[in-house]
Amino acid sequence: MSDTTTSGSDVGRNEPPLPSDRVRALDRLVGTWAVTGGAEGTVRYEWMPGGHFLVQHVELEQYGECVDGFEVIGHLHPFGEPIGDEIVSRFYDSAGNTFDYVYELEGDVLTIWAGAQGSPAYFRGSFADGDRTMTGDWVYPGGGGYTSTMTRR
Predict the structure, then answer these.
(1) CB 147 within 8 A of CB 48
(2) Displacement of CA 41 from its chain's centroid (Å)
(3) CA nearest 36: which of 152, 153, 151?
(4) Residues in CB range of 86: below 8 A, 6 or more apart
(5) DSSP per-residue string spanning the chain
(6) pLDDT, tens digit, for every residue of 56-115?
(7) What is the Cα–Cα distance from 138 to 134, expressed in whole angstroms?
(8) How far is CA 33 from the centre of its chain?
(9) CA dihedral 76, 82, 83, 84 (to 10 degrees)
(10) Distance CA 112, CA 100 (A)
(11) SS3 of residue 25 by DSSP
């Protein structure tokens, strides 16, 4: 953070840090998507004001169960501590569950690790068709998982 002196009212005021380029790269997800495959329904991504956090709203059916919830995605920045390097998230569902993830976007490939980066449970998908689709696989330990496709609405 740096001091700014751009106007009389701003003298000596600390400006908040700008959102990281890695978080801003997730802008490719913003919008509403139809989800098909092992889970069916709709997800919608939007930025919180300030652009530091991406929020995902989830309305899916998976294994015959409704999954309704939201996820907040960004860098951790606990009070008094430096901003964390990883892009992390926590998902909250209507059944009272929470799930933690780590996001990694390299080129057109998005990996979402369940829990910690390098976890044996993850999603890996690729953007295609001008970012109008993403197809990938959820992989679970022991060989479980499913293919999922998101199509922008």
Answers:
(1) no
(2) 17
(3) 151
(4) 75, 76, 102, 117
(5) --EE-SSGGGTTEEPPPPPPHHHHGGGGG-EEEEEEESEEEEEEEEEPTTSS-EEEEEEEEETTEEEEEEEEEEE---TTSPPPSSEEEEEEETTS-EEEEEEEEETTEEEEEESSTT-SSEEEEEEETTTTEEEEEEE-GGG-EEEEEEEE-
(6) 999 999 999 999 999 999 999 999 999 999 999 999 999 999 999 999 999 999 999 999
(7) 13
(8) 14
(9) -70
(10) 10
(11) helix
Question: Three-class SS of residue 91?
Answer: strand
**CA quadruple 65, 113, 25, 88: dihedral sign:** positive
In this structure, which amino acid lies at residue 93? D
The residue count for the chain = 153
CA 61 to CA 42: how far, in whole Å?
A: 9
CA distance 24 to 44: 16
pLDDT in tens, 19-63: 999 999 999 999 999 999 999 999 999 999 999 999 999 999 999
Which pairing describes strands 98-106 and 3-4: parallel, antiparallel, or unpaired? unpaired
> Is the separation of the CB atoms in 133 and 151 below 8 Å?
yes
Write out the two tokens for 136.
Answer: 């990938």
CA 83 centroid distance within chain: 17
The whole-model pTM stands at: 0.88
